């Protein structure tokens, strides 16, 4: 009887060695990672960066608490005279379970941005925003206005990529002077031109080129599991402004990585370990079985 018990224990030990060898040889699972980027404003001339906000960037290796960067009203580096009304806002957040979100752009006076736990972006503010595209004395001016101009994105390690833009009440406002009396102001709604990746040319002012717009720009990269968005990209064409690009609300989410319980890179090792463990277990159990028969 004692011999049988000893044999049973040895058989269980052999099976345990097999399992330990298989699962111990594979690399331990790594946690899901996440990254997010947000920049309210970037002005460049012929590709050279000028006035801009320092981007809010966060990363989470999957073991850290929630990482967030929200400077409130981000400081503007350099000088610009295009934004005539509104405040700059930006926030980026990365959670440890492979989720991230970002939101950035221009909001009305007193505006703030907040990213909820579900990744949604909420922007507040009053009075709207204004970006001057052209201003020529004795000719007139063209200004882009809206309640707010912001872009947002979110991503998960499972490949759920989202992007959106807030462009409520987007419109072009043209002001032309009169010899007598106040200037003539006309407003053209762009509410029907806010679908993703909508490009348009601003009408000329007294024969002068003004600008081209890319509204609600979005780009999805399934290979790297990432998404980027720009609420508004303006290429100025006016005299002295040609080559100037204004980007409002740049965000990027993703490059998140999902690691299963048994990482792919551990499978070859586990496969080899399984073969060795099975060989060892087979011969060990065979030997124990022979001993059991002899004990009878």
Protein described:
- The structure is a single chain.
- With 296 residues, this protein is α+β, with helices and mostly antiparallel strands.
- The protein has 2 helices and 20 strands.
- It has 2 domains: 34-254, no CATH class; 261-296.
- Helix content is 18%, strand content 44%.
- Strands 1, 2, 3, 5, 17, 18, 19 and 20 form an 8-stranded antiparallel sheet that branches. It has a 5-stranded antiparallel sheet with strand order 4-7-8-13-14, with no helix packed on it. A 5-stranded antiparallel sheet has the order 6-11-12-15-16, with no helix packed on it.
- The radius of gyration is 31 Å and the shape is elongated.
How is this structure best summarized?
The protein contains two helices and 20 strands.
Features:
single chain, 296 residues, alpha+beta, 2 domains, 8-stranded antiparallel sheet, 5-stranded antiparallel sheet, 44% strand
**Percent helix range:** 10-25%
How many H/I helices?
2
Structural class by SSE content: alpha+beta
What low-confidence regions span 5 or more consecutive residues with pLDDT below 50?
3-8, 11-29, 261-267, 269-281
Order of helices and strands: HEEEEEEEEEEEEEEEEEEEEH
| Mean pLDDT figure | 83
Distance between the termini: 9 Å
Largest sheet: 8 strands, antiparallel
The portion of residues forming beta strands comes to 35-45%
Q: Return Rg in Å.
A: 31 Å
Shape: elongated
What is the count of structural domains?
2
DSSP strand tally:
20
